[in-house]
Amino acid sequence: MPIVNCKIGKNVKIFHPKLVNLYNCQIGEGTQIGPFVEIQSDVIIGKNCKISSHSFICSGVRIGDGTFVGHSVVFINDRYPKAVDAKGKIKKQWLMENTIIGKKVSIGSSVTIMCGVKIGNNCTIGAGSLVVKNLNNNKIFYNKIFSKLK
Amino acid sequence: MPIVNCKIGKNVKIFHPKLVNLYNCQIGEGTQIGPFVEIQSDVIIGKNCKISSHSFICSGVRIGDGTFVGHSVVFINDRYPKAVDAKGKIKKQWLMENTIIGKKVSIGSSVTIMCGVKIGNNCTIGAGSLVVKNLNNNKIFYNKIFSKLK
Amino acid sequence: MPIVNCKIGKNVKIFHPKLVNLYNCQIGEGTQIGPFVEIQSDVIIGKNCKISSHSFICSGVRIGDGTFVGHSVVFINDRYPKAVDAKGKIKKQWLMENTIIGKKVSIGSSVTIMCGVKIGNNCTIGAGSLVVKNLNNNKIFYNKIFSKLK
After folding, report:
1. Chain B touched by C3 (CB under 8 Å)
2. What average pLDDT is seen over chain B?
3. C-alpha dihedral (B52, B56, B61, B64), degrees to nearest 10
4. At B1, is the pLDDT very low, low, confident or very high (cuts 50, 70, 90)?
5. I want to staple B28 with a disulfide (CB 3.0 to 4.6 A). Which of A103, B47, C37, C138 is the partner?
6. Å between C103 CA and nearest CA of chain B
C-alpha cells in the first residue's frame, strides 16, 4: 500500500488506499483524500480539508484547515526544474520554495500554483487558473479567458 | 477492484480495471476507458465513446454516443466548492449543476469544463481550453493563446 | 503489473510499478518515472530523464537525454481526435503526428504539447503552458496570463 510513514489524523478518509501515493506527510483530522493523489514528504495538510482526485501536492506545501483542493490541482516547489546537472548527471537536489495555503480556501479544479506563493484565508481560485502571485485574505482570483468560436 | 455497482454495456473496454475508480455509473456499449480515470455516481456515458486516461467525470455529467474525451479532461459539478460549512464542519452536500455533452463531440486533452454547460452535437473543443459557456451543435471552440518567447 | 514489453535501461527507477501504465516503449538508462504515468507504444525516452507523476506520453513522442517532464504534462498525437467514424463505429486508427523533444529540456507542470511540434535542446517551457509551435534550441516559452482579482 503506497502510504508510507504518514501521520494521519482521526477520521481521515482515503477512499482508495491502493490508488494514492502518500509519504512522510501529515494529514489533519477529518480530511478526505481522493484517488490518484500524490502527497510528498513534509507536506502538512490541516483538518477537514478535501483533496480531490488526480491532485499533486509536493514537498514544501502547507495547507490550512477546511481548504478545498479541486481535481487535477498541481503544486510546484522548484521554479526552474532540471533533470540533470551541468555534467549531465541526474539531479538529486533541487531549490525548494515553500507554498502556504490559508484556511477555508477554495482551489478550483485544474489549477496550477507556482511555488513561493502565499494564499490567504477564504480565498477562491477559479478552475483552470495559473497562480503566480500572493493573494491576500478573502480574494477571488481567476484567469481571464480569451476564446475563439467558429 | 474499484468498479462498483456500474451498469456496463456490451463490449465496453476498461483497459486497466485496477487503475480506475468507477461507481454507480452507466457506461454504454462499446465505450473504451483508459487508466487513471474516475467516473462518479449517476454519470451516464453513451455508446462508442472514448474516455482517455487521467480524466475525471463527476456526478451530474451526461455524455452522448460517439464522443471523445481526451486525456486529463476535468468536469465540474459545483461552481463554488467548499470543504467546510460556516461552522467549519466538513460538507456532505453540495450544489450540483448538470453538464450535458452531445453526440460525436471531440473534447481535446487538458480541457476543463465548468458545470451547468451544454455542448451540442459534433462540437470540437481544442486542447487546453476552459469552457464556461454553452456551445451550439457543430461549433469549434478553443482558448486563444498569448505567449511569450525569449 | 502494467509494464508490458518495455525496453528498460540500467538504473531506471519506476517508483510505483503497480501505479503506472507503460507498454511497448523504450526508457533510457537512469531515467526516473513517477506514479500515475502512462507511456504508450513506440515512445522513446532518453537517458537520465525525469518523468513526473500524472504525465501522459503518447505514441509518436520522442524525448531526448536529460529532459525534465513535469507533473500532469500531456502530449497529443492526433490533432483532430474522434471516437467514431462517419458511420458511428468506434475508430481503430488515427492520424498521428510525431512530437520531438530535445535534450535537457525543462517542461513545467500542467503543460500540454500539441502534436507535430519540435522542441529544441535546453528549452524551458513554463508551467501551465499550451505549446502549439516549434521552439528552437535554448528558448524560454510561457503563456502570458491575464487574470482578474476581486
Report:
1. no
2. 96
3. 0
4. low
5. B47
6. 18
Q: Mean per-residue pLDDT for B85-104?
A: 94
Taking an 8 Å cut-off on Cβ atoms, the answer to whether B142 and A143 are in contact is no
CB B135 within 8 A of CB B119: yes
Overall average pLDDT of the C110-131 stretch = 98
Single-letter amino acid, residue C110? S
Q: Using one digit for the tens of pLDDT, what is the confidence trace for B38-63?
A: 999 999 999 999 999 999 999 999 99
How far is the C-alpha of B59 from the C-alpha of A71, rounded, in Å?
13
| Separation between Cα atoms, residue A51 and residue A72, nearest integer Å | 10
pLDDT averaged over 10-residue windows placed end to end, chain A, 150 residues: 93 97 98 98 98 98 98 97 95 92 98 98 98 97 91
Q: Is B104 on the interface with C (CB under 8 A)?
A: yes
Count of beta carbons in the 10 Å neighbourhood of residue C75: 28
Cα–Cα separations (whole angstroms), residue A108 to A8, A146, B22, B100: 25, 19, 22, 20
Domains of chain C and CATH, by start = 1-142 (2.160.10.10)
| Nearest CB partner across the interface for B127, out of C36, C114, C146 | C114
Gyration radius of chain B's alpha carbons = 16
User: Chain A residues with CB inside 8 Å of C48's CB?
Assistant: 83-84, 88-90
> CB-based contact (8 Å) between C4 and chain B?
no
For residue A149 the three cell numbers come to 468560436
Can you tell me the mean pLDDT for C55-66?
Answer: 98
Percent of chain C with pLDDT over 70: 99
Report pTM: 0.98
Look at residue B7 and give its three-state secondary structure. strand
| B positions 107-146 inside 8 Å of A (CB) | 110, 112, 114, 129-130, 132, 135, 139-144, 146
Q: Do B74 and A48 touch (CB under 8 A)?
A: no
Task: State the ipTM, two decimals.
Answer: 0.97
Task: Write out chain B residues lying below 8 Å of C89, CB-based.
Answer: 48
Best of A31, A37, A109 to disrupt the B interface (most B CBs within 10 Å) is A109
- Flag if C38 and B32 touch (Cβ within 8 Å): no
Q: What are phi and psi of A87, to 5 degrees?
A: -90, 0
**Cα C6 to Cα C39: distance, rounded to the nearest angstrom:** 10
How far does Cα B135 stand from its chain's mean position?
Answer: 16
